[in-house]
Amino acid sequence: MTETTRRDEIAAGLARVEAEIAEACRAAGRDRKELTLIAVTKTYPASDVRLLAGLGVTDVGENRDQEASAKARECADLNLSWHFVGQLQTNKARSVVRYADVVHSVDRPRLAEALGREAAGAGRRVTCLVQIALDDDPDRGGVRPAGAAALAEAIAGTEGLVLGGVMAVAPLGADPGRAFAKLREIAQEVREAHPGADVISAGMSGDMSQAIANGATHLRVGTALLGRRKPFVR
Ligand SMILES: *Cc1c(COP(=O)(O)O)cnc(C)c1O
After folding, report:
1. What CATH number is associated with residue 119?
2. 25 lies in a domain?
3. Could you say which of 56, 142, 202, 210 would form a disulfide bridge with 177 (CB–CB 3.0 to 4.6 Å)?
4. pTM above threshold 0.85
5. Does residue 74 surpass a pLDDT of 60?
6. Is the minimum distance from the CB of 223 to ligand 1 under 6 angstroms?
7. Domains in the chain: how many in total?
8. Ligand 1 pocket residue status of 41, Cβ below 6 Å
C-alpha cells in the first residue's frame, strides 16, 4: 500500500475515533480537552507512527520493549510522548526508562523499585500508573484493588518516579461501564492521598465511551485507528 493511501486510512480512523470521543464527551458533559488520546501502535511500523504524528497525534503506546525501543529510536525526531502499556519484566526496566515517558502497567513494588533505580540512574523521571486488576485473570496483570493504595505510596516515594494515577483494562465478557466505575472509585482514593495523581487510563477501541462516562483521562486506542492487528507469536 502506498503511503498516501495508508495516510488516508489512518486519517479516516482518527476521524471516526474523534467523532466517538466527541459524542461520548457530549453525553457525559465533559470537555474533549480533559482527554488524551494515546495511539497504540504495537505491531504497526514506525512509518505509521510518523503518519499519526503528521495528523496531530501527540501520544503513542506500545506493549513490548523490543519493538517499542526500536520504534522510539526511529521516531526520535518527532515530538511524541511514549507510553508503555504492556506487562513488564523487571529486567526490561533499564531499556524502558530510556524512551518511556509514562509506564501504565506498574503492578508490583519490585517493578516500581527497578524502574526507579534505572530512571534515577539515567537522569530521567518516569510517570508511573498503578495498574489495577478488575478481574481475576492473572495473565492480564494488575494489582488487586485492595493493594492499590500501598503500591501508589511506594511509587510516590521512589526517586526517579512520579505517581501519575491509575490504569486498567476492562475484564473480558463483563460490562466495561461497571468495571470503569470501580476504577474511578479507586482513582479517587489514590487522589485523596496524592492530589497530583489524577490520571485515569481506561478505554480501548471497544469501550471508549464507557471509559469517558466514568472519568477516564487517557484512552489507549489501537484497532480503531490503525486496523485489526495480525496475531503474533511471542
Ligand atoms: C493493545 C492494547 C490497547 C489497544 O487495544 P485496541 O483494542 O486495539 O484499541 C490498549 N491497552 C493495552 C494495555 C493494550 O495492550
Report:
1. 3.20.20.10
2. yes
3. 210
4. yes
5. yes
6. yes
7. 1
8. no
